[in-house]
Specification:
By secondary structure, this protein is mainly alpha-helical. The protein is built from five helices and two strands, in the order E-H-H-H-H-H-E. Helix 2 crosses helix 3.
Amino acid sequence: MAPYQSNVREYRQKAGLSQEALARELGVSRQTVVNIEKGLSEPKVLLAIAMGVILGVTVQELFRKGTS
């Protein structure tokens, strides 16, 4: 299990963005967004901050400590 829980999908959908649109705004591939949403990949700090800015939430709202 990932050491964190990703809430990116929830906030992305609330913002009305597709995975492709978010990826384009971030300058990454759609697969990167998919992997982050699934908790398969951890974003670097600057990418996480950029996601928060685009989605209008804090990094802490996007990523929560995972439960074991």
